[in-house]
Amino acid sequence: MIDFIEELKWRGMLNDMMPGTEDQLKKEMTSAYIGFDPTAASLHIGNLATIMLLVHLQRAGHKPYALVGGATGMIGDPSGKSEERNLLDEGTLRKNQEGIKVQLEKFLAFDSGKNAAVMVNNYDWFKKFGFLEFLRDAGKHITVNYMMAKDSVKNRLETGLSFTEFSYQLLQGYDFYHLYTEHQVKLQMGGSDQWGNITTGTEFIRRKASGEAYALTTPLVTKADGTKFGKSEGGNVWLDPEMTSPYKFYQFWLNCSDDDSHRLIRVFTLLGKDEIEKLEKEHAEAPHLRIMQQAIAKDVTTRVHSEADYNMAVKASGILFGKDVTAELEEIDEKTLLQVFEGVPMVEISRTTLDSAATITDLLSTETNSEIFPSKGEARKMIQQGGVSINKLKATDPNEKPAYKLLQGKYLLCQKGKKNYYLIKVGS
After folding, report:
1. What is the rounded CA–CA span in Å between residue 230 and residue 263?
2. Which DSSP state fits 193?
3. Which pLDDT tens digit goes with each residue over 370-405?
4. What is the total count of domains within the chain?
């Protein structure tokens, strides 16, 4: 059994904790929770850092609670935000909640006996509250002065903070109180920007229940240059394969910098200390092999998606730069093929046009509306010079009949020179 706090320390995942937290964890199996607001249909890799807190907690023999904020998601947390976010309707929030639940089930064991993970939704208890009832039972226990002192509030006073957002920490504080009284949850965890909200909960428990509860935060994951981690050129890197494909997800980790990889491998993987240090040594001896990035990409892609998705992503990644990859090209599915060649010009022709093309020269010029080569002469010249490949097989004879196997029964991949790709889509 691992020691939870020691595990967080060597992984660089411990930012702060209230006095007595470690003693409580050593004393008994402790229930702890993290909240996730369903503001999108999927969690992203920024959320994954806090999910890993719950993973390590359960591995250490404690009981994790995942709170989906069906109620607080309607309000919006001002922590770390420069402006108020748009509020979502209940239908959208419900849909988002279901997506998040499915994702969390990949990381936590919900059927592991005494320390089985539990999922709760704060809408289930807040829907019973009337406004006046909440003011009486919750609002009177926390002073405005106490709430105003929080950084999440102070940092927004100049730009403007609605009463709706101002009340968020009171709602989150009540969440902790509810879980403390109903489920004996004694610890709340989260990112370092959540410290104010979490400690409001411990104060709420102290004042209303005369109880003792604890807080623990993890550092926000940033890049070596201090900028926010977790976004690609296309925006957030999501855990949902429909929003960020397994191929793109794998590529994101593979392309992390050497400076970032030392922290990322500790935060996002389940690899042990000795194994990580061994990988770091091997990486330092041959950084061009990107050993660290490959280890991160394998571990995280497999756990977030599946081993099959990881293998498909590896095959797909080798296609652009590999030479003898015809087999891999034929093995990847249509979805992955289109992801790999996203943005590549696509030329559509009929099956009749393909069958009637006398030569590969004709196919790559007149029969594809001169979109690949403007003329037969240019096509013939580049083929003779060895600058054309079809499905990663070099074309050598400009007069040969284009009798190529269609990828997924409908595509031909044409490479013109080193970097120019075209997809020929063959219709019925």
Report:
1. 13
2. G
3. 999 999 999 999 999 999 999 988 999 999 998 888
4. 3
